[in-house]
């Protein structure tokens, strides 16, 4: 310790303080500040660049997702339209079919009614003709039969016989 | 295979040389006296080397008494400013006469004396002559100045290269920038904190490179022992001390004078201890750097000196190898001490800025 104090040189201490503080101030102004600022700027720049790259990547992803969505929507719309058209077609066909059916049924029904009427008329006509004919025949037969008295009696007899049998 | 054969050759050589050495042993006894002289010479040389010097001696020839180097200006305050060249002292051999006053260089210190250069001693053989205030530009001051100049141009260059090259350093800056970032990311931010490290960066960077470069300069054959000088380390520690205490916040002083969270009695006991700590911290910085660098120089030079003492074919190469290994170790120590000083300074700054968290 004694040697330390003995060796202590005030002059050197003085110069050291002076030179060191001078160096410190000079370096601060001309070296450390610009160096640290530049390094900070660079680091900031790198950070920003990385961040913007990340943002761009996300944007890209969003864009792609959007595209996908739009494409899907368009596809769905197309499918819907096709389906609708098919539906429409089927409806039209079935409607037409139903209409045709009813029309046909109507025609058939009319035809049947006409036929029925014709048939009835024919039958009625036939009936009246058969009745006329029968009356004519019966007149002729009766006329012939009633010419003979005996025969008239015989007939009455037979008819009366039938009545009793009943 | 090759390695083994090389080792074998070495061993054979060693054996031969040992036998030669045994033969030479008798002659050595005669030289014993001269060897003791050599030992004191080496010791004196080391002692002298550890101290500051008033001239820049590169090497000297003991036999002819010739010194090679250049003198430095001596600036004294002794009832007036006295400036003269250190060549007037002739390395302490003659008395320098300036304006009717006589000065003598004795053990690297300037004493006031008479025309004959008498030095008076006390009982412990310490000179008791009057000492004028010595502001000389000594070898250490020159080294500090040169290192300062070097640092300025290096880091100015780095700062400029950013502007030129769009924020990317060029040339030597590529080597310096990671070091600057190391101080910022490994020393300043972990110890001081993200928010407050900025205002300490200038000091931390300056002190880190200053100590490191001066330590390295001490490893060159110039071997100037600047960071192993107590005045230099004291100055650095003093600046650290001032910065710590002038930038300290309320919480820091609260922890020193009125430690929170302990009983009142303990508060009173702790206050003087904590206050002592305020001074011990920079004191330890001063002693650590001084002792490490001085010890490094002493050991290294002693081993180099061993080469001359052994003067044998085994001892000298052995001490050379040892000195070589030690030099490498000292290169590490040079960086390590700079790191430790900066790191502890940052730690103290961090403590002075800690926010209350109880």
Task: Tell me about this structure.
The complex is a heterodimer of chains A (166) and B (358). Chain A has 166 residues and is mostly helical. Chain A has one domain (19-162). Helices cover 96% and strands 0% of the residues of chain A. Chain A has 3 helices and no strands. The longest helix of chain A is centred in the middle third of the chain and has 136 residues, at 10-145. The radius of gyration of chain A is 66 Å and the shape is rod-shaped. Chain A starts with a helix and ends with a helix. Chain B is mostly helical. Chain B has 2 domains: 55-134, no CATH class; 139-352, no CATH class. Chain B is 63% helix and 11% strand. Chain B has 8 helices and 8 strands, in the order αββββββββααααααα. Chain B has a 3-stranded antiparallel beta sheet, with no helix packed on it. Chain B has a 3-stranded antiparallel beta sheet with strand order 5-6-7, with no helix packed on it. A two-stranded antiparallel ribbon of chain B has the order 1-2. In chain B, helix 1 packs across helix 7 and helix 4 (201-219) packs antiparallel against helix 8 (315-352). At the A-B interface, helix 1 and helix 2 of A face strand 8, helix 2, helix 3, helix 4 and helix 5 of B.
3D shape of chain B: globular
Alpha-beta content class of chain A = mainly alpha
Give the biggest sheet of chain A.
Answer: none
* Contiguous helical run count of chain A: 3
The number of strands of chain B is: 8
In short:
The complex is a heterodimer of chains A (166) and B (358). With 166 residues, chain A is mostly helical.
List keywords for this structure.
heterodimer; A: 166 residues; mainly alpha; 0% strand; B: 358 residues; 3-stranded antiparallel beta sheet; globular
Question: What is this structure's SSE topology?
Answer:
The complex is a heterodimer of chains A (166) and B (358).
Chain A: H1 2-7, H2 10-145, H3 149-165
Chain B: H1 2-50, E1 55-61, E2 66-71, E3 73-77, E4 81-85, E5 96-98, E6 101-106, E7 109-113, E8 133-134, H2 139-164, H3 173-192, H4 201-219, H5 230-246, H6 250-257, H7 264-310, H8 315-352
Antiparallel strand pairs in B: 1-2, 3-4, 3-8, 5-6, 6-7
